[in-house]
Amino acid sequence: MSYAPLYGPTFHALVREPLPTVETVVLSDGTGIHVGSDAVIRTLGHLGGRWAFAGKLLKAIPRPLRETGYRFVARHRRQWFGGAERCPLPDVTVRERLLP
Fold first, then answer.
1. Cα-trace Rg, the chain
2. Considering only CA atoms, which of 63, 73, 67, 43 is closest in space to residue 55?
């Protein structure tokens, strides 16, 4: 899996239309571009096992309700799980997967 910044050339080559917000997750895989809760579901599927099963359960929830839940968690994640003052520098294994 590779990573690209939302404002970088790699992302803009894949996604032509602007995102509704940059406070979201975007996944590009062999099936297309997935944003928000759809990206989370696809990511869980790629993880396999219990995570894939959790993704299937989430997919059964209607998209508008899923997106409301996704935005709620996104809004409160730092409050619940903490957050860094600034982004840490990636180690060598992560740097190899960063795209421009």
1. 15
2. 43
Q: Read off φ and ψ for residue 24, nearest 5 degrees.
A: -145, 170
Reported as a single tens digit per residue, the pLDDT across 15-65 is 777 766 667 788 888 888 888 899 999 999 989 999 999 999 999 999 999
Q: What type of residue sits at position 40?
A: V
Residue 98 phi, psi (nearest 5): -80, 130
Cα–Cα distance between 13 and 7 in angstroms, integer? 11
What is d(CA 10, CA 100) in angstroms, rounded to the nearest whole number? 6
Write down the residue that tokens 């600034």 correspond to.
86
Quick: pLDDT tens for 66-78: 999 999 998 888 8
Residue showing tokens 């599927």: 45
Distance (Å, whole) CA 77 – CA 7: 22
Q: Please give the pLDDT value at position 20.
A: 62
